[in-house]
Structure prediction request, 522 residues.
Amino acid sequence: MTYSPTALCSALVAALFLVGSGCSLTPQMDSPETEATLPDAYDTPLVEDGPLYAENDSTRLDPVRWWTAFDDPALNALIDTALVRNLDLERTRAVVDEVASQLQIARAPLFPQATANGSYNRQTQPANTGIGGALGGGGAPDGSVPDRFTFDTYSLSLALSYELDFWGRLRNQRGAALERFMGSVDAVQTARQQVIAQTISTYFEVATLEREIRLGEETIRVLQERVDLAEDRYDRGLVRSFEVYALRQELQAAQAEQPQRESQLADARGRLSVTLGQFVGDVDEAVMQAARSAPRDEVLATLQPVPPGLPSDLLMARPDLRADARELNAARREIGVARANRLPSFSLTGEGGVQNSTLDDLLNIDQRFTSLVASVAAPVFQAGRLRAEQDAAEARYTQARATYEQTLLTALQEVHAALTAYEKQQEQYALVQDQLEEAESSASNQMRRYERGIGDYATALDAERTRLQAAQRLTAAEEALVGSRIALHRALGGAWVAPPESDDPRLFRDTYRPDAAADTAD
Prediction:
């Protein structure tokens, strides 16, 4: 029986509609217990009238460029450079391109596969073999009957094949690939947050170390002057040797700290260069000069306060949590794939074209040929391989579920710890700032007393030394405060602005239907 090309195409199109009546073997899993019992808000000891909070201030924070809250143009310039040139980000973006190609590969079997074929076949054989031999053929002495036969065949054809996705195997493969593609996009966001955090922390580390080196140099100068004064007073019998030795040791300790700070500064500058995708020393000096001159107290004073009662839904803005949720749903779909592999598969194969013995008459429609084959293949004996594949898919789902719940618990703990640490660092910074103000007042007062002749110079130098020590502590407190602020942003996935409900990856939310999203993405 032969079929016209029109009938062949009609049969394949009809097969596409049959897929819609198929079923899916993807299991409907219960929501992870940790996710289902997630509290409505973060459990923190913070109070709404504390120094960190301002009602409805979250609306003023840009959730995309959250680092602009530091109000530092030099920092913004460095982050813009890092987001363009960082090599870890470049590698992660290339992974997205690879996974996008894998998604295209996974969705291709959902459509008919067409292959165009063209061939030329030349065959020669003796006349006394095959059919010719059976008919008594053979070469005649007069040449009227050839001693060999030659056959030329030219053909052009179009082959179509299609597998009926009755059990949803191909759709689940495509759905799993889609989830992993979205997860790779979330991985880029995770890498992006890491690069931003590294840039900010290293930038402030460089600025802090340079400030500490300058304060250290000033401290050494004051201590040297204090040692000289003590030695002079010792020579005159006004102080004991113990005071001289103590001051000398303090001077030597201050001098010994400088090489370590300079080494740390070189290391920090190198790490900043790598983060920016540049060689060591290529960081724009104008930008770093701006960092040195930026008043840290003003930068910290302009930070947007954290609003009270942050909802736990903010966790869904974390790209690492979103990526694990995507992987969990991909693993669930792979169970459906493994189940479908144990059932019969249905496929249609058709071919149509023209065939002739001469090239000139190849396109003659009377020389057409067609074929249509419907087949079913069912596994009968696989020595337990298919069942083992399903067991392995179910085990991978259990692993992905545990990973997702662990990430969720860790994320909640990180936010709780970051909120608490940020508040405590605020308190510490305020206390050290008060200490510095007191030390500055004392140093100023003692210097005025000395200039008026009612105080001695040693007391003035001691007061100045105390001021420098308080300034060193405030510099360290500033860096710790910035670090805690960065940790808070990272724990919250960037900013405290909740993602749209339609983009919430939690499995138990009615607003997020991963099956529908994957099935309609094409």
Observations:
- The first strand starts at residue 113 and ends at 126.
- Residues 1-5, 11-21, 44-61, 508-522 have pLDDT under 50 and may be disordered.
